[in-house]
Amino acid sequence: MKKIGFFGGTFDPIHFGHINLALSLLEKHQLEEVIFCPAFVSPHKTDAPPVASPEERLQMVERALAPISAFTLSRREVERGGISFTVDTIRELRSRRSKEERLFLILGEDALAMLDRWKEIGELLALAPPLIGGRGEEVALSSLSLPPLMAQAVKEGWTEIPMMVMSSTFLRERLKKRVYCGHLVPAEVLDFIYEHKLYLK
After folding, report:
1. Among residues of the chain, what percentage have pLDDT more than 70?
2. What is the 3-state secondary structure (H, E, C) of 89-132?
3. How buried is residue 145: exposed, middle or buried, by Cβ count under 10 Å (0-12/13-18/19+)?
4. What span, in angstroms and rounded, lies between the C-alpha atoms of 104 and 127?
5. Which residue segments constitute the domains of the chain, with CATH numbers given?
6. Does the predicted TM-score (pTM) go above 0.85?
7. DSSP-derived secondary structure for 23-50
8. Nearest to residue 164, comparing CAs of 187, 135, 193?
9. Which tens digit of pLDDT belongs to each residue from 138-192?
10. Alpha carbons 125 and 87: distance in angstroms, whole number
């Protein structure tokens, strides 16, 4: 059975926190592939659209993934347009992939706070059980009010990993202030950001 991770997000921009999460879960759960799928518009961020265009975000993700052969880029949500609901993408992937492949949903600890508001979350977690990278399982899970089946899926997929405390928002703020960001984002992505003058205003 081939195990494949699905990692969706705005990636505005992608940074080492994303790479570290995906790589840690790939290694700990022996995944053969992790699919990065930038959202066209995140359903949780409709009031704050991405700063970079969909194509710019795709190019940054593509550059960041290039050194890691197990990481692949999907343009599916950007090409589909509209609000990007993960369950729609997973249904589509599931219908096109071999029955010998098993999909897993890659999440960071921060995504758990809104998990119960995701579209058709029960079906989503049945199609792609979650793998969550985080630090303190006890604290994170005790603060959630999830239905029993969802809570069980989260508990089973919890994976303790070394964490990088950062976010795309934090990175954008540093870029706007024009301070050093080479320790936060792959060099190829940083070059692209400077070349296209992204996040500087």
Report:
1. 96
2. HHHHHHHHCCCCEEEEEEEEHHHHHHHHHCCCHHHHHHHCCEEE
3. exposed
4. 8
5. 2-165 (3.40.50.620)
6. yes
7. HHHHHHTT-SEEEEEE-SB-TT-TTS--
8. 135
9. 555 666 677 888 888 988 999 988 877 788 999 999 999 999 999 999 999 999 9
10. 9
